[in-house]
Amino acid sequence: MGFVVLLFLLGQVNQCTGMRSSSIGAVDAATGTITLNLAQEPPQLDSTKATDQVSGMVLGHVMEGLLRYDENNNLIEGVAESWSVTDTEANFKLKQDLLWSNGTPITAHDFVFAWRKAVDPLTASQYAFILFFIENAREITQGDMPIESLGVTAVDDHTLHVKLIEPTPFFLSLTAFPTYFPINQAFYESRDGRYGANAEDLIYNGPFTISQWVHNANVRLEKNQNYWNKEAVHLNVIDFAYILSDANAIINLFESGDIAQAGLNVELVDRALRNRWDIRQHVDGSVFFMEINYREGRLTRNYNLRKALQYVNDPSELVNKVIKLPGNLPGESIFPVWLKGVNGKFREEFPAKPLVTNNDKAREHYALALEELGLDKITLVMLSGDNPSANKQSEYYQSKYAKELGLELKLDRQIFKQRLQKMTDGDFDLVLAGWGPDYADALTFGDLFTSWNENNRGRYNNPEVDRQVDIAKNSSDPRVRMEAFARVQDILNEDVAILMNYERGSLYVVHDRLKNVARRSVGPDPDYAFARIVDKGS
Amino acid sequence: MAWYTVKRLIQGIITVWFIATATFWAMHEVPGDPFIGEKAVSPEVEANLKARWGLDKPPLEQYWIFMTNMLQGDFGISFAQESRSVNDIILERFPVSAILGILAIVFAGLGGVLYGALTALYRNQWPDVLIILLVIIGISVPSFVFASVGQLILVVINQILGFNVLPVAGWGDISHMLVPALVLGLGTMAFLTRLMRSSMLEIVSADFIRTARSKGVPAAQVFSRHQLRNAVLPVITVLGPSVASITTGGFVVENIFGIPGLGQSFVLAVQQSDYGVIMGTTVFYGAFLVLMVIIVDLLYAWIDPRVRLE
After folding, report:
1. Alpha helix (H) ranges present in A297-358?
2. Residue among A303, A239, A242 at smallest CA distance from B258
3. Contact at 8 Å (CB) between A290 and A394?
4. Distance from CA of A11 to the nearest CA of B (A)
């Protein structure tokens, strides 16, 4: 009896998982296959609603916007063959004869449909804001305008016209973002609310298609034979054969030759060195900092208290002695080092004024703060995540503040959602936080601490910051914009709106025969679309 | 017996209802709703999201809607994977956990009986001491340690041999299940070994064994026919609840070996505040556990006629 049940269940499992043949290894030149691990099941492959990195990465391989990124992270043509952007509008000429994976032609209407869907209040997309540069987008999301009023029109099947509400010099990079990907209306509606649920509930226009998607077990991508630039695509199959989040398990797979790429944490660096693996470094583009609660009634509104904390703060010590993972940079500015400035890099053109650590000055400011607040001792609450890395950091601050200032720091450790809820509610004095870019322009960091930004969880409020961001938003002159951002950079540090921690870097190992994998701070990452398998030794 | 079964089933239904209700209210008390993410959403989008998922309704009404849907066997849609229904997720993932759990129980049952019998046979000699030492390790070391070590050993074996004897992780065919099932079953195996040992020792000195020996039954036959058969009874009664706890408690093992089982989605759902999946998996597991307990109670009576069901 038990045996029969066992057999039945085995049959069930095989039915569910599609019985995979045994692994062919990390890279297989004969079939053009690479095997990889996916950090999690992609939660959402409807591009209008996707918010997370894994979904964005998969979508970046199987869909294509008007423009896309190449393996050197340059913006290149995608569905569009030519374009022009002014302060008030953008025009795109689409390639002729492009086809979806099911053979339907790709037209400008597919973009209009997708963009309207993304701002539709009923979609309630959490990334609707990324379209707010387009006329009426914000009003539509708020339910004040009909979705047909969105400032995007298909002049004909191959011409797309976009009306912008403000100069958006980085608009082209936005068109490479998943929320801007096209969706075919007829197909979308034929799925009856299940668009994106399974491999067959999607049609594709990117370099790859999803040929198999077994939820929580594996995702297999195959070269899209309808892709216009398929000559540039060298791989036939990208097989995400594993969906694993445990760092040790992932590196075990790498070591046994099952997957072609794996991330490293502090504990795994030695193992990678011992094995002489090809260790690489990647700056993922995010900046980490301590947000300070600026709401009425909070002790942290006191400038001298904030200044005292700033003088104690030592990002180098945090990066080198506490976090210890090579690849992180000590934080100096809200604007990370990779952002473009006027001609070169923003931070080279407008270096942040150095933040010095000075415990004596810190104590002076702390004494002033005590006097102004009429207290003998200050106790603050630091909200942080509940994981080994966050715990190490918060405990470091706790002992440092106690030692240098005599300030008592209470730690409030919360798991992900609970921490975010408390951040949103303003239930903290200090919080370990970070910000990842949405598009490749200084504005994605620059407007973070404006009074109107919902992500400004400490509710920092400074009319001069608002004014400078307004200047930047109303100009397309790179110099005017970057000078305004440079001013924001200075004010945030001078007024201690936040305390800088680090710019995140990561280490990873790659199979020595896999080349041309693009890593980037903005856009699908990692990107295997143009990767290739080379012979050993070359 | 029939009346007893009906009574137990009614009790079971009340238990499941209680589990569902308690989970529903506890879940809504935890700060952080399903929609909160790293990027803040505007009040309009948040209102739209809440309206779409019915979270704008008063809690009592939400509870009523949930209960009426649940009675019709519908747990709604996953909040984290919007286009998928909770029923689909459970139907897809439970067989995976179940097959792994059953394999683990097979390992645990066979191993437990075998090692338990061995320790009893060689009481206070070196096999006994060695196995009891291993049992202590098996009971005290948590499964994630076994899982990590087991996986590492696999990597080393595969490297030495130059090919993959067994896959390091992943899911697909029987070769993917062996090591995870073994790891999952180790704790139970250790527990069963101890249980088997004590019950064997108890029986060695029983009258019917002495009678058998005095009749001149060969030692091997005494062991297999009389000793083992009787000693295994308590082990079988313990196996029932173990089936429930093993098929539901595989989160860590599933996580390390990348197995798409229900234990994993159960824990992830709580972390993601995925209300639909939390309710679906909790009620499903609750019902499963209750059912296993009832079945074991009924089996008791069937296996051991001395037990009377009241």
Report:
1. 303-312, 315-317, 346-349
2. A242
3. no
4. 10
Chain A residue numbers touching B271 (CB-CB < 8 A): 415-417
- Per-residue pLDDT tens, chain A, 538 aa: give them: 344 444 444 444 444 443 344 456 899 999 999 999 999 999 899 999 998 899 999 999 999 999 999 988 899 999 999 999 999 999 999 999 999 999 999 999 999 999 999 999 988 888 999 999 999 999 999 889 999 999 999 999 999 999 999 999 999 999 999 999 999 999 999 998 889 999 999 999 999 999 999 998 999 999 999 999 999 999 999 999 999 988 999 999 999 999 999 999 888 999 999 999 989 999 889 999 999 999 999 999 999 999 999 999 999 999 999 998 888 999 999 999 999 999 999 999 999 998 899 999 999 999 999 999 999 999 999 999 988 889 999 999 999 999 999 999 999 999 888 899 899 999 999 999 999 998 889 999 999 999 999 899 999 999 999 999 999 999 999 999 999 999 999 999 999 999 999 999 999 999 999 999 999 998 899 999 999 999 875 4
Q: Can you list the domains of chain B with their CATH numbers?
A: 94-261 (1.10.3720.10)
Q: Name the DSSP letter for residue B223.
A: I
Name A169's Cβ contacts closer than 8 Å, sequence gap at least 6. A85, A441, A476, A478, A481
Residues 483-512 of A with CB under 8 A from B: none
Q: State the Cα–Cα distance between residues B36 and B103, nearest whole angstrom.
A: 39
d(CA A404, CA A40): 42
Please tell me which of the candidates B93, B99, B175 has its beta carbon nearest to residue A216.
B93
φ/ψ of residue A204, rounded to 5: -125, 150
Pull the structure tokens for residue B167.
Answer: 């896959």
DSSP character at residue A341? -
Facing residue for A242 by CB, picked from B36, B98, B169: B169
Give CA–CA dist B129/B286, Å, rounded: 39
Question: What interface predicted TM-score (ipTM) does this complex get?
Answer: 0.84
The alpha carbon of residue B21 and the mean position of all alpha carbons in its chain are separated, in whole angstroms, by 23
Helices (H) and strands (E) in chain B, counts: 13, 0
Place of tokens 């190992």: A509
Query: What are the residues whose beta carbons fall under 8 Å from the beta carbon of A17, sequence distance 6 or more?
Result: A214, A217, B96, B171, B172, B260
Answer whether A219's CB lies under 8 Å from A59's CB. Answer: no
A433 touches chain B (CB under 8 A): no
Pick the closest to residue B250 from B170, B103, B143 (CA basis): B143
Residues of B in contact with A122 (CB under 8 A): 48, 52
Buried b (16+ CB within 10 A) or exposed e, A307-342: bbbbbbbbbeebbeebbebebbbbbbbbbbebbebe
Measured between CA atoms, how close is A141 to chain B, in angstroms?
7
Question: With an 8 Å Cβ cutoff, are A455 and B40 in contact?
Answer: yes
A241 vs B contacts (CB less than 8 Å): 170
User: Do A345 and A272 contact (CB within 8 A), yes or no?
Assistant: no
Paired tokens of A343: 């001609």
CB B122, CB B116: distance < 8 Å:
no
- CB proximity A192 to B under 8 Å: no
SS3 A63: coil
Out of A44, A49, A243, name the one closest to residue B258 (CB): A243
Question: CA of A362 to nearest chain B CA: how many angstroms apart?
Answer: 32
Contact B112, B189 (CB under 8 A): yes
Q: How many CB pairs under 8 A join A and B?
A: 183
Other CB atoms within 10 Å distance of the CB of residue A209: 24
